[in-house]
Write a structure and sequence with these properties.
Helices cover 82% and strands 0% of the residues. By secondary structure, the protein is mainly α.
Length: 82
């Protein structure tokens, strides 16, 4: 399993976009593709996808815990209402 990226997702996305633009310009100008640039871009995109997947999973877990807490607090408040 890959380690969690130290960079925030927005920075990874910006880095990947920058490299993609440079690669696009190189292709249009007939310059040879850089394998290192392609590898860096793919790595940044993989880390970004992993980070977003982890963030989504954490958000879903937090939402589930919030719903459970709301039910518990609702049950505790019910005797006070009566």
């Amino acid at each position: 399993m890959d380690p969690v990226s130290a960079e925030p997702p927005y920075l990874l996305a910006a880095q990947a976009a920058s490299v993609v633009r440079r690669l696009n310009r190189q292709v249009r100008e007939g310059e040879p593709d850089s394998t290192a640039d392609l590898d860096r871009t793919l790595g940044a995109l993989r880390r970004l996808a992993d980070d977003l997947a982890r963030a989504r999973a954490a958000g879903l877990l937090m939402a589930q815990e919030l719903r459970a807490s709301q039910r518990l607090l609702g049950g505790m408040a019910a005797p006070l209402d009566g």
